[in-house]
Amino acid sequence: MEQYRESPTDEQSERVSKPTEPVKPEKERSEEPKAKSDESPPEDTKADYESHLKPLSAGDIVPGLVVQIDEHGALVDVGTKSEGVLPSSELKGEDAASGEQLQVGSQVDVYVVRSEDEEGRVLLSKKKADYEKAWVRILEAHKTGEPMTAMVTERVKGGLVVDLGLRGFLPASHVATRNVRALDRFVGQSIPIKVIEVDRARKRVVVSQRLALEEEKGRKRKEVLESIQEGEMRQGTVRRITNYGAFVDIGGIDGLLHISEMSWTRIGHPSEVVKPGDKIDVMVLKCDRERERISLGLKQILPDPWQQIEEKFTVGDVITGKVTRVVPFGAFIQVEGGIEGIIPNSELADERVTNPEEMISANDVVQVRMIALRPNERRMTLSLRQAQQEKEKREYRDYMTSQREGGRVTLGDLVGDALAARKAEKEAEEPEGDQESQSSESPEESPPEKAQSPPSSNSEEPT
Fold first, then answer.
1. Domain check: are 130 and 165 in the same one?
2. pTM
3. How many domains, the chain?
4. How far apart are CA 246 and CA 241, in angstroms?
5. Residue ranges of the alpha helices (H) in 145-259?
6. Mind listing the pLDDT tens digit for each residue in 108-147?
7. Nearest CA to 109 among 70, 152, 165?
């Protein structure tokens, strides 16, 4: 049976006119080799890739990535067609930047020793990179004056050796210590230093610890002076003591704590209150920023004993005190609480006193009577004379009481005996003749005769 066919269209006729490839079976198509993905890129893509590669020259310091480590060394990707080679001798020790052992994936700066060897590899060195970077840091620090930190590695003649990534010399005169013989204690310590001399040609670097510390102290002093306010509290450390006070470090600057501001009571020497190394709280009394002088006070944060003195003492009390000093006009006595009162010369003894040292001496412990108290004026007047009188009266009363209780004598008996003795003395002083004359000169008067009464009117006259 003949199959019916439609007349082909233009498009269909055009397809038919073109030669067509025979259709292969599905199985044969699946067995055809696929195009390789790692085929070399086109020329334009290859040229673009090579343009992004870093051209390296001997002496360059470039960052790299450790991609492989074995017994022969490490391969480091530095952005070139092939990895650079880091010898095994460069792997010993720690990375100067991170302080860790190099491992695959570590970021490291390397020095290009040779841009390409016989095999077309780049020869690298990490130690030389660290050395060159150290010189860059040192030269920059010397130029700007910025301090650095270095580890003291050994003691040598005339000073110390420090590790700056290269060898640095610290003269003994620039070590922050007065005991030059004790330089060994700095070995193994990390200290602040300042580069004061650099000679790249001779590979010589001279540093100073003393200048670095002075600059650091100056920076802190400036910060404290800008922030400090009068009347505020600060914690400090006692650095040194003098006869007139103590110097206290309050965070980078020393302030003077005068002896008069240490205590509300009189003290002989600052060492009685503070000692070097003590941590104390002080109050800022005055700050002179131009002259960089700060006055401090300690007694201002302590309770004032004069405010509670009326609760402890009243006028008329007999108290015990210690003589602190003797002056031409009297003596000062320190009583409980450290408060000082004065005994005027007129209150030292019953008789007139011109030289108090004849009556009393420093460090004597005496009993005195309080005769005046003025807390607002911070003055207290005492009397040694009245205290002694009070003591004598008390002793006399105690004696009489003991005698009365013993049944020997009474106060009336003593008074009567005293009056009788006084009367006897007066009678003994008068002579006997005076008594006789007195008796003769005063004869007894006879009684007067009776006056005759006038005659009575009723009586009869005689005839």
1. no
2. 0.51
3. 4
4. 4
5. 209-227
6. 888 787 777 666 678 888 888 888 888 889 999 999 989 9
7. 165
pLDDT of residue 92: 64
Distance from the first to the final alpha carbon of the chain:
248
More confident residue, 283 or 125: 283
221 CB-side CA count, 13 A:
18
Positive or negative, the Cα torsion across 175, 179, 180, 181? negative
CATH of the domain at 210: 2.40.50.140
Task: Say how far apart CA 400 and CA 395 lie, in whole Å.
Answer: 9
Claim to verify: residue 295 and residue 319 sit in the same structural domain: no
pLDDT reported for residue 435: 43
Cβ burial, residue 327 (10 Å; 0-12/13-18/19+): exposed
**8 Å CB contact between 155 and 184:** yes
- Of 188, 215, 242, which one is at a domain's C-terminal end? 215
* Domain membership flag for residue 384: yes
Number of other CB atoms surrounding residue 248 within 10 Å: 25
Both 174 and 208 in one domain: the answer is: yes
**What is the domain extent for residue 289?**
234-301
Check whether 104 has a pLDDT greater than 70. Answer: yes
Assess whether pLDDT exceeds 70 at residue 52. Answer: no
**pLDDT on residue 191:** 92
Confidence at residue 29, expressed as pLDDT on a 0 to 100 scale: 45
The dihedral sign for the CA sequence 229, 230, 232, 238:
positive
396 falls within a domain = no
Query: Is the same domain home to 309 and 387?
Result: yes
Q: What is the pLDDT of residue 308?
A: 79
Q: What is the DSSP string of 96-113?
A: TTT-S---TT-EEEEEEE
**Residues 113 and 123: beta-carbon distance below 8 Å:** yes
- By the 8 A CB rule, do 168 and 150 touch? yes
User: 301, 332, 359 — which closes off a domain?
Assistant: 301
More confident: 39 or 170: 170
Summarised one tens digit per residue, pLDDT across range 202-251 is 889 999 999 999 888 888 888 888 888 888 999 999 999 999 999 999 98
Q: Is residue 162 part of a domain?
A: yes
Whether 112 maps to a domain, the answer reads: yes
Residues 263 and 282 in one domain: yes
